Amino acid sequence: MDTTKTDRLKAAGWRTGDAADFLGLSPEEAAFVELKLALADYLRDVRVSHGWTQTHVARLLGSSQSRVAKMEAADSSVSIDLLVKALLTLGASREQVGRVIARAA
User: How many structural domains comprise the chain?
Assistant: First the structure.
């Protein structure tokens, strides 16, 4: 958000911050959320770059289309473990997954 808008909001009595502030997340919890979002985004990027549908990816993973949609949305029911396993199954290398994790840090 630009400084002018932030200043106007503060002058009107509003507080500004990020999602971690709003949700009251600790730095560790915020880092965990960022990591999960980065892996979910990368999963979607891998799928799209191959021209695959969520249904096709679901078949490759032995799962359902709705589960793949939840994975790509970083749903709370999806673990980081599941995201990493899915990426590796879809052909991402450990180095690629590691780069995603490193960028999220």
Answer: 1
